């Protein structure tokens, strides 16, 4: 074996949950992987967990190697070097780029796998390819890559949305296709595509998350209607969602919601359902807000995403909602909801709400949310010069598997 053959195909910088699982995923596909984490109070536990996990991989010691020295980590990589950053967005990425700068050579590739704002990714792509070349003669390819699927997806197959240069994508393509989720009739179509240049990958992932907000809000409201209007208990709610999931609404989010609704509280002594004890207070991260902000800047209407974001903000104001509930708790039940419980005998056009009709409405709402999100991506393609590379159909194919919004 030559020295180059013994080197790793990729290095993963950052051994948190996502970093470890991505490294294990790639190693399980027989690609040699180098792992690095800066030494701190957590690093030993991270490396110990990685050592335990790699026992489940065939030839784990040969394909997955751990480094505590950054220079040795970089030197262990096959050229052109490929380094996946699995670290928090923002300042940590900026600091890491400065650390790597003197150790890299032209045509090396850095992949940012975090949820970074696409404008920052565009700036860093320019910095690595142009500014660094002017400063020290090095042209580094910077790739912003959206990763969807959480820790489980990272380990067993995520949906991947990389941006960046064609050179960078071609150098990564065999590995990305191997580690990504698979979809299609034969379950053999990789859920990865080059979205476009510079920040396009992170933009697509941002919109993906905006659609995810809407999807989750639709499902939540559907469950409320099943409970409060149709009078379904948790078991009936779960059955209704299972039936939806067996049809056109088949998706990861519908499936796990059906399972969560009938989950009993293992720690309770009253045989109650866990979902009924969850505090009705939701948080939000940057990507949902960015989606709504950028849509407003572009003059693109995405009411499904914006309403879902605002619903999260309202839910976060739980103290104010509790006061309002106390003030109006003695009021009679909303007449609109009350009238929905019984069919109207005075109008032949009135349709009684039932689980089947509600499922069709949910299906329609999902389609509208996707249409709004894809319209925003198309608009961004025109605004940022991505149109030549942007392929909406391929992006939709990526979203079929691995990711949180994966669906039939």
Count helical runs.
17
- Tell me what portion of residues adopts beta-strand conformation: 5-15%
Strand order in the sheet with the most strands: 3-2-1-4-5-6-7
Number of strands: 9
| Mean pLDDT across every amino acid position | 91
The unreliable regions are: 343-350
Order of helices and strands: EHEHHEHEHEHEHEHEEHHHHHHHHH
Distance between the termini: 45 Å
Descriptive overview:
The chain has 408 residues and is an alpha/beta fold. The protein is built from 17 helices and nine strands. Helix 1 runs parallel beside helix 7 and helix 9 runs antiparallel to helix 16. About 2% of the residues have low confidence.
Q: How are the secondary structure elements laid out?
A:
Layout: E1 10-13, H1 17-28, E2 33-36, H2 43-53, H3 60-63, E3 64-67, H4 70-75, E4 82-85, H5 91-100, E5 109-112, H6 118-136, E6 141-148, H7 150-156, E7 159-162, H8 166-179, E8 182-183, E9 189-190, H9 200-228, H10 234-245, H11 252-261, H12 286-298, H13 303-316, H14 318-327, H15 335-340, H16 355-383, H17 392-398
Parallel strand pairs: 1-2, 1-4, 2-3, 4-5, 5-6
Antiparallel strand pairs: 6-7, 8-9
Helix pairs in contact: 1-7, 9-12, 9-13, 9-16, 10-11
């Amino acid at each position: 074996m030559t020295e180059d053959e013994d080197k790793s195909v990729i290095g993963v910088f950052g051994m948190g949950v996502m970093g470890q699982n991505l490294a294990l995923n790639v190693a399980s596909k027989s690609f040699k992987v180098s792992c690095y984490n800066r030494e701190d109070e957590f690093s030993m536990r991270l490396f110990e967990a990685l050592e335990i996990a790699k026992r489940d991989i065939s030839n784990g010691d040969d394909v997955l190697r751990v480094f505590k020295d950054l220079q040795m980590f970089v030197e262990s990589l096959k050229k052109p070097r490929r380094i996946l950053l699995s670290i928090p967005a923002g300042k940590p990425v900026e600091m890491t780029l400065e650390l790597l700068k003197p150790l890299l050579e032209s045509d090396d590739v850095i992949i940012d796998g975090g949820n970074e704002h696409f404008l920052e990714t565009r700036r860093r792509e320019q910095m690595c390819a142009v500014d660094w070349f002017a400063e020290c003669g090095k042209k580094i390819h910077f790739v912003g890559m959206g990763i969807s699927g959480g820790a489980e997806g990272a380990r067993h197959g995520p949906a991947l949305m990389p941006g960046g240069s064609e050179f960078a994508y071609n150098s990564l393509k065999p590995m990305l296709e191997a580690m990504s989720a698979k979809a299609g009739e034969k379950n053999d179509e990789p859920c990865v595509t080059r979205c476009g240049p510079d920040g396009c990958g992170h933009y697509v992932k941002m919109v993906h998350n905006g659609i995810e907000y809407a999807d989750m809000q639709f499902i939540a409201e559907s469950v409320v209607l099943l409970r409060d209007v149709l009078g379904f208990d948790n078991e009936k709610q779960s059955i209704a969602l299972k039936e939806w999931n067996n049809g056109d609404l088949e998706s990861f989010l519908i499936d796990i919601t059906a399972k969560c609704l009938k989950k009993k509280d293992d720690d309770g002594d009253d045989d109650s359902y866990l979902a009924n004890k969850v505090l009705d207070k939701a948080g939000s991260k940057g990507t949902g807000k960015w989606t709504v902000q950028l849509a407003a800047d572009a003059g693109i209407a995405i009411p499904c995403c914006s309403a879902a974001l605002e619903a999260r903000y309202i839910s976060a104001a739980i103290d104010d909602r509790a006061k309002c509930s106390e003030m109006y708790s003695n009021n009679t039940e909303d007449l609109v909801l009350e009238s929905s419980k019984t069919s109207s005998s005075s109008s032949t056009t009135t349709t009684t709400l039932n689980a089947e009709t509600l499922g069709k409405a949910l299906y329609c709402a999902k389609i509208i949310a996707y249409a709004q999100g894809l319209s925003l991506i198309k608009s961004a393609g025109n605004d940022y010069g991505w149109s030549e590379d942007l392929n909406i159909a391929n992006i939709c194919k990526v979203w079929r598997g691995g990711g949180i919004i994966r669906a039939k």
